[in-house]
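[Meeting: bench + compute handoff]

Bench side (C.D.) handed over the final construct sequence. Compute side (W.E.) agreed to return the predicted structure before the next meeting so the bench team could plan truncations. Sequence as handed over:
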Amino acid sequence: MIVQVYVDDIIFGATHENLCNAFSKIVRSEFEMNMMGELNFLLGLQIKRTSNGTMIHQHKYIKELLKRLGMDSSKPIDTPISPSTKLIMDDGWVTFIPNCK
């Protein structure tokens, strides 16, 4: 189970629903609490649960940023680095090898 307290907000989740229910019951016995449902948005991050797991992204933030900068009609690309950039694994860290000529 994970519990995060941010000022007067509590976000919690667990791998088993019965843990969330038990935690909610304990907190409600001590404090007034409203359940807002499944978390979808937190501090600029969008959270979405799929069959593949939990995905965290910033699509909305990026779209608003591009619009503010007048780049919302720019052509998107799949890879932010050149496909010819070589990556090597060194002691668990990925190192970029720039294309030097």
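W.E. noted at the follow-up: The first strand starts at residue 2 and ends at 6. C.D. will use this when planning the next construct.
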